[in-house]
Amino acid sequence: QVQLVESGGGLVQAGDSLRLSCSASGRTFSRYTMAWFRQAPGKEREFVAAISWSAGSTYYVDSVKGRFTISRDNAKNTVYLQMNSLKPDDTAVYYCAASRGTYVSGPYDYWGQGTQVTVSS
């Protein structure tokens, strides 16, 4: 069992940066593929970024490529999402997720409660 807790969300202006953190419980964090998803009001949840267990591979949705960076620190059981050049379209609840598998497509077995990111124009 893995418990995920996100933090770092907030209200920012367009062009600003935020760094989200996701802290995981459990001794096997380093074995999980980790990802960030987001859900905007009235929209379906969408994949944002993922990182392999070794951090050797990262994947991004096209809309955030070049602006967002996913990383992880297995010693701290934490995954991060650095978000730069934020846009109003990035406004959403951001969720951290963990997969016991090796495919970034999932399925994702564990989810955090989410953290709100609001970008004003």
Describe this protein's structure.
The chain has no helices and eleven strands. With 121 residues, it is mainly β. Strand 5 (46-51) and strand 6 (58-60) form a beta hairpin. The termini are far apart. It has strands spanning 4-7, 10-13, 18-24, 33-39, 46-51, 58-60, 68-73, 78-83, 92-99, 110-111, 115-120. Strands 2, 4, 5, 6, 9, 10 and 11 form a seven-stranded mixed β-sheet that branches. Strands 1-3-8-7 form a four-stranded antiparallel β-sheet, with no helix packed on it.
What is the strand tally? 11
Fraction in helix: under 10%
SS summary, helix count: 0
Report low-confidence residues grouped into runs of 5 or more. Answer: none
Tell the overall outline: globular
Major β-sheet, in short?
A: 7 strands, mixed
Instruction: Please tell me how large the radius of gyration is.
Output: 13 Å
